[in-house]
């Protein structure tokens, strides 16, 4: 059972994260957290959705845009928290564009997580339902270098919308992704902040109030 309170939600997410997190390659900054970006545990989505909805409660949100693939699940969860009138959009991360997509923004994005340092070609964003002046909240599961977020935000801005926020399940502070996105004049938020990783699944989490370590040692 997830506690429905900011402190309870944050503590629950931290516990789940530290339990499931595995350091794949400490030197390159690779980490896997199955319940956050592979099998997407419903309790994690629910707790994160509440935290994100609270963070942006002072904003008017017309559209929630999920970055594929896991960001789409988070977008749905957050939309249910924010309200029934919000519209949920997504982009595509493969080469195939649905025939029904007529108004498309496309770009090449170097995805740290999915392309192993190579170039991932986004099919694009379906802009058919985006209107000038819409206020958009962009969501993803992970923020590493921030390049994906910057490109998606850029594509949305070309349509004349205002991107009011960018939120993720977790980010890796040492790769500077959220800071890069923030330079786009976008408010950023991360449910879990990873300060450092090291061998033997050593992981340090940090936020404004406290920090934890896993793996039996600090890094």
Automatic annotation (TrEMBL):
<dbReference type="Pfam" id="PF00156">
    <property type="entry name" value="Pribosyltran"/>
</dbReference>
<dbReference type="InterPro" id="IPR029057">
    <property type="entry name" value="PRTase-like"/>
</dbReference>
<feature type="domain" description="Phosphoribosyltransferase">
    <location>
        <begin position="42"/>
        <end position="195"/>
    </location>
</feature>
<dbReference type="InterPro" id="IPR050118">
    <property type="entry name" value="Pur/Pyrimidine_PRTase"/>
</dbReference>
<dbReference type="InterPro" id="IPR000836">
    <property type="entry name" value="PRTase_dom"/>
</dbReference>
<protein>
    <recommendedName>
        <fullName>Phosphoribosyltransferase domain-containing protein</fullName>
    </recommendedName>
</protein>
